[in-house]
Amino acid sequence: MRALLLLLAALAAVAVAQKDPHWVDGRNTIVHLFEWKFSDIAAECERFLGPMGYAGVQTSPVNEYLALPNNNPSRPWWERYQPISYQIISRSGNEAEFADMVRRCNNVGVRIYVDVVINHMAANWPDATGYGGNKADTHNKNYPAVSYGSGNFHSTCQITNYNDANNVRNCELSGLHDLDQSQSYVREKIIDFLNALVDHGVAGFRVDAAKHMWPADLEYIYGRVKNLNSQYFGNNARPFFFQEVIDQTGSEAVHNYEYTSFGVVTEFRYGKELSNCFKGNNAIKWLVNWGPQWGLLPSSDALAFIDNHDNQRGHGGGGDVLTYKTPKLYKMAIAFMLSWPYGVTRVMSSFTFSNNDAGPPANGDGSIKDVTINSDGTCGNGWECEHRWSEIANMVAFRNTVQGTSVTNWWDNDSQQIAFSRGNRGFIAFNDQDNTDLKQTLQTGLSQGTYCDLASGSKVNGSCSGKRVTVNGDGTAYIEILSSATEGFLAISADSKL
């Protein structure tokens, strides 16, 4: 009995360890640099993410994937989710460039998390060829570069009934050939792939389509992946796993909480509900108890985000979320996420698109364009780079400053204006009410002095490029957010004191 208890305790410890993102102290928030090249990610870690206090980068899938027939410069983004092999070769770069990126980012305290596609392989295509030149006979489920044959897949059937867990987990999502992860051979191939990434120094993985795999199979696979590279993470550190499980209504057969005993889960309700609030469809005063009381997962089990590469295009969990296309409301939702103590936070960094299938900005030969940086710090060449918007980057710094504090001094106007403190380290206010200004003297919880508003400007060399807020000796301050203002929030922190 004692041996059994010790074993169970050890397994529980491993499961908890797989929820640790291994951030460097004093940092927070993952940014998804969607479709970026490895060389550009490395440069961004060094020139911006590290200095600004970001904790990590989620990459797009790095393994070889389908190059659609009739190749042209406008490659659809969803090619990346049709694997041909587990070799590290893609439009983002080769294995040497990947290794260089991971090393350079780790060296400046920015962790790398790879989006891994292990539920399926590419769907049926004529003459299916990957970016590394490997071919597959997709019609016969033959992927020799792995190698997988038809016997390594579930029987061909399509997902048609989300009220049937067997259908969701054993059939094909949009015709993508569904791997059978219960097979030892398939498991070992996947584990070998993840181990190769661990050897390079990644901190963990975003697991695509986890909802479509059996929890027991994933638990086994995760548990057999080796510990992280000790060069960066010390001894016995477990990879961080965050899993894509879309469960917005709780009415389907597969539930997100089925996956929380061995990793974190992407909480899709988070962005949907916050977007609904800041769009004015639900009063933001109700956010006073934001978290599990709204039907969300416990904070320790959740990856929190507003939008991702799927739902900003109207699928993969719905198209009712705020995105960069509605900047004022979007920045307010992101600011609330980064100011509220819940979950592991992730922000999206997009390329500009109008066609939902459009791939990243590309050169005439089909290669991905460089991410260029304008003189004002924004991105060029068709890259949106929301993570560089000063309001969002400053709120990442705000979250770093208020770590470990609780929500205090809540105030609301019984509608669409709210404010609260984070202990004695930060204060934030929101005005989401049309044609109504916020003009109130409120308790900030901060010490007396003059502070730089992180929404309208930045503190640089002791000066403020935006509004200044004066906090009185009793901690109160006059807070003004006009309904006509470009930004719908105001934030000050102990580190923005002038």
TrEMBL record:
Where does the UniProt annotation place the signal sequence? 1-17
User: Mind listing the GO biological process terms from this record?
Assistant: carbohydrate metabolic process
Instruction: Give the multimer and partner information.
Output: Monomer.
> Locate the Alpha-amylase C-terminal domain: which residues?
408-497
**What Enzyme Commission number(s) apply to this enzyme?**
3.2.1.1
What are the record keywords, sorted? Calcium, Carbohydrate metabolism, Chloride, Disulfide bond, Glycosidase, Hydrolase, Metal-binding, Signal
Name of the protein: Alpha-amylase
Domain Glycosyl hydrolase family 13 catalytic: start-end pairs: 28-399
Reactions listed under catalytic activity: Endohydrolysis of (1->4)-alpha-D-glucosidic linkages in polysaccharides containing three or more (1->4)-alpha-linked D-glucose units
The protein's organism comes out as Gryllus longicercus
List the InterPro entries. A-amylase/branching_C (IPR006048), A-amylase_C (IPR031319), Alpha_amylase (IPR006046), GH (IPR017853), GH13_cat_dom (IPR006047), Glyco_hydro_b (IPR013780)
Q: Which family does it belong to?
A: Belongs to the glycosyl hydrolase 13 family.
Q: Name the needed cofactors.
A: chloride; Ca(2+)
Q: Which GO terms describe its molecular function?
A: alpha-amylase activity; metal ion binding
Q: Does the keyword Transcription regulation apply?
A: no
